[in-house]
Amino acid sequence: VSKELEGNFFFYIKFNSVIKAAEDCALQYMNFMNVIFAAQKQNILIDACVLDSDSGLLQQACDITGGLYLKIPQKVALTQYLLWVFLPDSEQRSQLVLPPSAHVDYRAACFCHRNLIEIGYVCSVCLSIFCNFSPICTTCETAFKIQLPQMVKPKKKKLKQAT
């Protein structure tokens, strides 16, 4: 939110805070991803200031929306990180030397068990992700046609004719 004061001065109020009080919960993965994509569509940056263990979901949120993800190396320096890294807006950040981006874990949560998986099956209709194959999507109930491998008949050997 920005407001114009007397003259050409602006002040900015920023409320894109993410507070992480517990470990990531795969049960909330899909809801959280919907929030991330809605923020991306509205050009809202999501920043994450992490004090304890890393969060794959917050890493994805920051990467997708163009925000910053930073695990604070020293808790005594929290105030400095909040003021110098997270307070500036996106225009001001482009002029700063910020800490490097962390590697983002892009594993998805399966819709059946809500477990994070690296390789899975995707419904071609609703894009639901599953860890095990099923001929019917449990989300949109689409039935998939399964092509079984064709049985190849063995070729008959030609008999050599004696001359």
UniProtKB/TrEMBL annotation:
Keywords: DNA damage, DNA repair, Metal-binding, Nucleus, Transcription, Transcription regulation, Zinc, Zinc-finger. It is found in: Nucleus. GO terms for biological process: nucleotide-excision repair; regulation of DNA-templated transcription. Pfam families: Tfb4. GO terms for cellular component: transcription factor TFIIH core complex; transcription factor TFIIH holo complex. Belongs to the TFB4 family. This is General transcription factor IIH subunit 3. It comes from Mastacembelus armatus.
